[in-house]
Here is the input.
Amino acid sequence: MKKIGLTMLMAALICTASFADGVHKASKQKATFMAKQDFQSDFPNVKGEQWSRDQQYSEATFMQNGILMHAFYDWNSELAGTTHNFAYSDLPGSARKTIAKQYKNYTVESTIVYNDQEDNLNDLFPLVPYESDVNYFVSLKKNDQSESIILQVTPDGNVSFFETMR
Here is the structure.
């Protein structure tokens, strides 16, 4: 289940181009009707969202206040969480120092913020212990390697290894 959530998170990191094309290429399955209805309740002023679906989540990709967002709905059509790109420079200073020291041979690819919907027990990453409902995920890559690593950063600056992406 963690892998599915991570795949959705990484899709959120790289789907800007596909959203700009007007087609989300993550999945050909249709989002559930109830997820679409709940989305309209959760984000009443948003129009023109793009939908995709995998085995576990319906994902809405949309613009809100000039920011490309992703909202994930579970099989019960409940909001599991949202993600959007985040400036690496806006991470807590202690986290940036830790990353610079421990991962000095890596380059930052992208950073996203994940807002967990605390009321929904079917979280996007159910096996990951969250200290808060907001977490940051930083994708790093070594210049000579094809795989990336993902770090989880808490709002208070704690940095932990999350996953290797191939």
